[in-house]
Write a structure and sequence with these properties.
The structure holds two protein chains of two kinds. Helices cover 0% and strands 50% of the residues of chain A. Chain A is an all-beta fold. Chain A is globular and about 45 Å long. In chain B, strands 2, 4, 5, 6, 9, 10 and 11 form a seven-stranded mixed beta sheet that branches. A four-stranded antiparallel beta sheet of chain B has the order 1-3-8-7, with no helix packed on it.
Chain lengths: 113, 114
């Protein structure tokens, strides 16, 4: 089946620290990969995506590269801000008609000033 | 910027009651979805809907659940007889036709079953 595994949280960093949140996946077929972010009290927002191997998605200083050989899509940011505190979900999509997403469990990030 | 909207933002109901959660997807989108997130847990797919019929559903989406697009703009999730374990945040999402496109999520409805 299809599944997404993320590193356990919570992750607590100081402002301007480097961030990595690991994500690996198992999928039948050739998935598209996504990172969604959920700020406190809000819904899910797309952060970035990649649809084929070696694609790099990037947005707001965050980056993730689709690594087919390691089935990974790790999220990185060079210098986090307090405003980045949120829950980050890695997700994949393999189904055309339904396109149901499979989400990872989420990683809570807290950035301290 | 167009967005998915959901009402109500919070619904409290008694066990055994019926609830209808409402969503207005983005107007030119053709695929519609419901997900749920039990507090502190991951987001789980419930159902997808295209061309006025369910295209996929998960094992969570049993006979107590139904979806409907009653008009050109609304997309609803009905739970016929709520259980305590239905308490969760329910997210609606939509996207345009085509494979592997991002889904746009609404802000969610928090359902509390007492």
């Amino acid at each position: 089946g299809n599944s997404v595994t993320q590193m356990e949280g919570p992750v607590t960093l100081s402002e301007e620290a480097f961030l990595t949140i690991n994500c690996t996946y198992t999928a039948t077929g050739y998935p598209s990969l996504f990172w969604y972010v959920q700020y406190p009290g809000e819904g899910l927002q797309l952060l970035l995506k990649a649809t084929k191997a070696d694609d790099k998605g990037s947005n707001k200083g965050f980056e993730a590269t689709y690594r087919k050989e390691t089935t990974s899509f790790h999220l990185e940011k060079g210098s986090v801000q307090v405003s980045d505190s949120a829950v980050y979900f890695c997700a994949l999509s393999v189904s055309f008609y339904g396109q149901n997403f499979v989400f990872g469990p989420g990683t809570r990030l807290s950035v301290l000033p | 910027e167009p967005e998915v909207t959901q009402t109500p933002s919070h619904q409290v109901t008694q066990m055994g009651q019926e609830v209808i959660l409402r969503c207005v997807p983005i107007s030119n989108h053709l695929y519609f979805y419901w997900y749920r997130q039990i507090l502190g847990q991951k987001v789980e797919f419930l159902v997808s809907f295209y061309n006025n019929e369910i295209s996929e559903k998960s094992e969570i989406f049993d006979d107590q659940f139904s979806v409907e697009r009653p008009d050109g703009s609304n997309f609803t999730l009905k739970i016929r007889s709520t259980k305590l374990e239905d308490s969760a945040m329910y997210f609606c999402a939509s996207n345009v036709a085509g494979a592997y496109n991002e889904q746009f999520f609404g802000p969610g409805t928090r359902l509390t079953v007492l």
